[in-house]
Automatic annotation (TrEMBL):
E.C. no: 1.14.13.149
Signal peptide residue numbers: none
UniProt organism field: Halobacterium litoreum
Pfam entry (one): PaaB
InterPro entries for the chain: PaaB, PaaB_sf
Spans through the membrane: none
Protein name, entry field: 1,2-phenylacetyl-CoA epoxidase subunit PaaB
One of the record's GO molecular function terms: phenylacetyl-CoA 1,2-epoxidase activity
Top-level division of the source organism's lineage: Archaea
Keywords: Oxidoreductase
Amino acid sequence: MIWEVFRQEEAGDRHTHCGNVHAPDREMALMFAQVQHGRRMQTNSLWVAPKDEIGEVDADEAEFGGTTDKAYRWAITYNNIDASFAEEVAESEAEQEEAAQKRGDV
């Protein structure tokens, strides 16, 4: 039986898939996982799960939150401001200044 092994490097980190082991039962799988995957790098915790019990849903089978563009969440997006947008901002600022002068705010 094949068992998938997930390793956590430090407490609080995520468990990441690091490989698999072949073992007849859970106890042997845990022991093999410790020997093969737990001692190579710093390890805080190991998870061992039967391969048959792990399910997968990929992008072909389901939509994960749709296709909404959420680039606005990343500051790097604002480095590429469209020139027409910059013109609109300048026009808007000019209109605001003109309106302030008419009101006598300036």
